[in-house]
Amino acid sequence: AQSVTQLGSHVSVSEGALVLLRCNYSSSVPPYLFWYVQYPNQGLQLLLKYTSAATLVKGINGFEAEFKKSETSFHLTKPSAHMSDAAEYFCAVSDPGRDDKIIFGKGTRLHILP
Amino acid sequence: EAGVTQSPTHLIKTRGQQATLRCSPISGHTSVYWYQQALGLGLQFLLWYDEGEERNRGNFPPRFSGRQFPNYSSELNVNALELEDSALYLCASSKYRDGSNTGELFFGEGSRLTVL
């Protein structure tokens, strides 16, 4: 069964600094991978997804993630943090088969320091 | 285009009661997912419906159940409520075609259930 681990339940970065949120997955087949963002009192929205095409995936709001099969990782990055990036970020994995429920990590809350 | 809508926004119940939560997917989406978001636990997968059938369920007791109607809207029922059922319940919809889920979920804003 697939699973996903997010390292760090809270991450703080200064405004303008690099954002790096870590995600490692476990899957028996080549997975689909996703990053979602949840702003306060809202549902989740998709930032970006990997579905076996290019390994470097660009998403909305300047975020990108790189699929590294050898490291079973799909870390999320952004070169320069903005105050508006403060939110909770969830990594998710899906096995693209019949039983393809989507499993989420526990989330990482990103704090932006002025 | 209307997004995923959930009702009620907030619900307060006491232990042992039953709760019913409702979800309307985006038009054209046939799949509905339910997740429980409890404090510190992330999103726990509850149920997945597609074309009126339950496709998969997470590791929750049978008192968590649901159904999907012909118009693809869905209902989540929680019987014999316990204190630990207090959480935000999120519904999401997606397209499911050619035997493959695109994986892109569109979420509602959730129903917050409080059990006293």
Secondary-structure topology with pairs:
The complex is a heterodimer of chains A (114) and B (116).
Chain A: E1 3-7, E2 10-14, E3 19-26, E4 32-38, E5 44-50, E6 56-58, E7 64-68, E8 73-78, E9 87-94, E10 102-104, E11 108-113
Parallel strand pairs in A: 2-11
Antiparallel strand pairs in A: 1-3, 3-8, 4-5, 4-9, 6-7, 7-8, 9-10, 9-11
Chain B: E1 5-7, E2 10-13, E3 19-24, E4 31-37, E5 43-50, E6 53-57, E7 64-68, E8 74-78, E9 87-94, E10 96-97, E11 100-101, E12 106-107, E13 111-115
Parallel strand pairs in B: 2-13
Antiparallel strand pairs in B: 1-3, 3-8, 4-5, 4-9, 5-6, 7-8, 9-12, 9-13, 10-11
Question: What can you tell me about this protein's structure?
Answer:
The complex is a heterodimer of chains A (114) and B (116). Chain A is mainly beta and 114 residues long. In chain A, 0% of the residues lie in helices and 55% in strands. In chain A, the strands form two sheets. In chain A, strands 2, 4, 5, 9, 10 and 11 form a six-stranded mixed sheet that branches. In chain A, strands 1-3-8-7-6 form a five-stranded antiparallel sheet, with no helix packed on it. The relative contact order of chain A is 0.34. Chain B is an all-beta fold. In chain B, strand 5 and strand 6 form a beta hairpin. The mean pLDDT of chain B is 91. The chains are: A mainly beta (114), B mainly beta (116). Chains A and B meet through strand 4, strand 5, strand 9 and strand 10 of A and strand 5, strand 11 and strand 12 of B.
Q: Which key phrases capture this entry?
A:
heterodimer, A: 114 residues, mainly beta, 6-stranded mixed beta sheet, 5-stranded antiparallel beta sheet, globular, B: 116 residues
